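[recover] target loaded
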């Protein structure tokens, strides 16, 4: 009985009744048109007219399902009343593709067709069942011309079966409603679920969101990671010579102050992108570029010999920002592995079609301490270069360590300006 009269069955029955109510305006309009084409003198339309009107009302209802709100309303009603399995989600938003529109039309038409049938049964069968169940107990009803039984059926054993017949009609009506509701619930994920185009669009949105998150993670890693490495090493060096070289300590503290102040500004910029959301993060990408390279080299904590060839002002903004971060991460690696004051040779060359960055530093005498979880610096450099359509590599070279990056000046469009 739970399958026929349980909570889920009642909700699905209500969903079908709503479908019948939605069908009624189309049914009445079709009935009026058929009545004018095939006039009937009787006070009530014959059954043939009603069946024809029902069939004609369905195409009229299908046309309205092409309007944008139809899919969203259908999904909302199906979620609330149909009891769709949780592992088969329904699509959100309007139908954006032709396939989704066709599926919406099929669902809307099926809902209204089954709803019209179940609504008709709900209106007609309970009074009929009640009448049949009352006939054995009312002689006047059996004798009346409206409810009278044929003499062949007016027998005690037949009258005793009439209440069960009425009860069977009610159960059959509930069974029809339950079957129709189960059919709609089974078709809902197919007709109202995401289409392949919807899944592809969702995957593209997730990929775009992941790309933005990765870019912001790289910004935080390069900016904050460089600052922490520089501050840690400068503070360590200052502590060792605190008593013997006060002037060096003063310079180290000044460098720490400037580094942290600059990093706080960069951190505020990145957090502003996070607060602004994905679109803001794409369109309002900010950060230091090659024009701020002198300030970076001045207080980076290593001894840098820099040679710039070409006009860095002609470098596109996206390439200039990524180049700055690549240099910053290279200096962080040199500082982390070589220590304070390690000599670094940096060459930045602007060519006609690409920007070349080469950074040479000596290999450390002893292995550097590996941070818990490992670093992401070299991977981040490679990712930045690949996103611009370039390449980057790092490794031992002529007894030292070389970082080399080639960035095309015509970006591939994967990184916003």
């Amino acid at each position: 009985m739970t399958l026929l009269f349980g909570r889920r069955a009642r909700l699905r029955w209500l969903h079908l009744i709503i479908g019948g109510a939605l069908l009624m305006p189309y049914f009445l309009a079709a009935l009026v048109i058929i009545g004018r084409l095939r006039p009937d003198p009787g006070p009530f339309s014959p059954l043939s007219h009603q069946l024809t009107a029902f069939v004609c009302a369905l195409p009229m209802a299908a046309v309205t399902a092409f309007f944008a709100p139809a899919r969203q309303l259908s999904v909302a009603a199906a979620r609330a009343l149909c009891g769709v399995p949780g592992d088969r989600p329904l699509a959100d938003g309007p139908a954006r593709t032709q396939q989704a529109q066709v599926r919406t039309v099929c669902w809307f038409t099926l809902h209204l067709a089954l709803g019209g049938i179940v609504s008709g049964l709900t209106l007609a069968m309970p009074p009929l069942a009640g009448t049949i169940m009352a006939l054995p107990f009312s002689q006047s009803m059996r004798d009346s011309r409206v409810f009278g039984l044929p003499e062949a059926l007016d027998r005690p054993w037949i009258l005793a079966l009439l209440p069960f017949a009425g009860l069977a009609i009610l159960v059959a009506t509930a069974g029809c409603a339950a079957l129709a509701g189960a059919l709609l619930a089974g078709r809902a994920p197919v007709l109202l679920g995401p289409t392949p185009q919807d899944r592809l669009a969702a995957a593209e949105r997730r990929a775009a969101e992941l790309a933005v998150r990765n870019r912001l993670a790289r910004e935080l890693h390069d900016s904050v990671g460089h600052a922490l490495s520089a501050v840690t090493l400068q503070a360590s060096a200052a502590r060792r010579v605190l008593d013997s070289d006060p002037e060096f300590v003063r310079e180290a503290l000044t460098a720490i102050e400037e580094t942290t102040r600059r990093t706080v500004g960069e951190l505020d910029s990145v957090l502003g992108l996070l607060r602004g959301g994905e679109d803001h993060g794409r369109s309002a990408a900010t950060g230091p570029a090659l024009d701020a390279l002198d300030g970076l080299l001045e207080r980076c904590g290593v001894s840098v010999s820099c040679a710039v060839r070409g006009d860095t002002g002609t470098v596109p903004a996206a390439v200039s920002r990524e180049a700055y971060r690549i240099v910053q991460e290279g200096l962080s690696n040199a500082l982390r592995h070589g220590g304070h004051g390690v000599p670094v040779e940096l060459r930045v060359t602007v060519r006609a079609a690409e920007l070349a960055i080469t950074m040479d530093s000596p290999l450390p005498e002893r292995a550097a301490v590996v941070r818990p979880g490992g670093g992401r610096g070299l991977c981040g450099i490679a990712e930045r270069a690949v996103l611009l359509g370039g390449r980057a590599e790092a490794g031992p070279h002529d007894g030292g360590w070389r970082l080399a990056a080639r960035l095309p000046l015509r970006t591939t469009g994967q990184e916003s300006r």
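[recover] notes: The beta strands are 303-309, 343-350, 354-362, 391-397, 400-408.
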